[in-house]
TrEMBL record:
The lineage of its organism: Bacteria, Pseudomonadati, Bacteroidota, Chitinophagia, Chitinophagales. Residues 5-170 form the Lipid/polyisoprenoid-binding YceI-like domain. It comes from the Bacteria. This is Lipid-binding protein.
Length: 173
């Protein structure tokens, strides 16, 4: 069995996020700090992805003051608490064809996740893409969640948010 390890190239990898609320949605990016992808006989087998929560960026709010206020709120304990939790980690434990299972840790809280991913290995280069839908309340992010607060009306924020991940990795010698 030929085993290969690939190191994620952070500058060529990214995560696009979307969070929805009653009155619309917000979107942005968050950086991948580091990670490795394991391949056995040319097939995706596992890995670990470290996300830099301090890099959260909002793309849909163009007013600088409003953008900075929202970014500060996402960084606060109401959401990701980036001072105490500057990283989130996805550990991929099982891969079955395109179905990936793993453990996602946000704010030191870990839960299993399952999602589909496409992975292409071409010599020393690996590219991968996947979409994960996450229930934020499982990670202690309860701000304006209808599960925890009543009578929110049009200020309600939906519990699920999505991460669209795009990775580029290079083989480690």
């Amino acid at each position: 069995m030929k085993k290969q390890n690939f190191e994620i190239v952070s500058a060529q990898s990214n995560i696009d996020w979307v969070g929805r609320k009653v009155t619309g949605a917000h979107n942005g990016t968050i950086s991948i700090k580091s990670g490795t992808i394991n391949v056995n006989d040319g097939e995706f087998a596992g890995g670990r992805v470290v996300v830099d929560t301090t890099s959260i960026n909002i793309l849909d709010i163009t007013d600088p003051a409003t953008n900075a206020q929202f970014a500060g709120h996402l960084a606060s304990d109401d959401f990701f608490g980036i001072e105490r939790f500057p990283e989130a980690v996805l550990v991929i434990t099982t891969v079955n064809n395109s179905e990936v299972e793993g453990n996602l840790t946000i704010k030191d809280i870990t839960h299993p996740v399952r999602f589909n991913a496409s992975v292409d290995v071409n010599g020393d280069l690996l590219t991968a893409a996947g979409r994960i839908v996450i229930d934020r309340t499982k990670y202690g992010i309860k701000f304006r969640s209808g599960n925890f607060f009543k009578n929110l009306g049009d200020t309600l924020i939906y519990n699920d948010f999505e991460l669209n991940i795009s990775l580029t990795a290079k083989a480690v010698a």
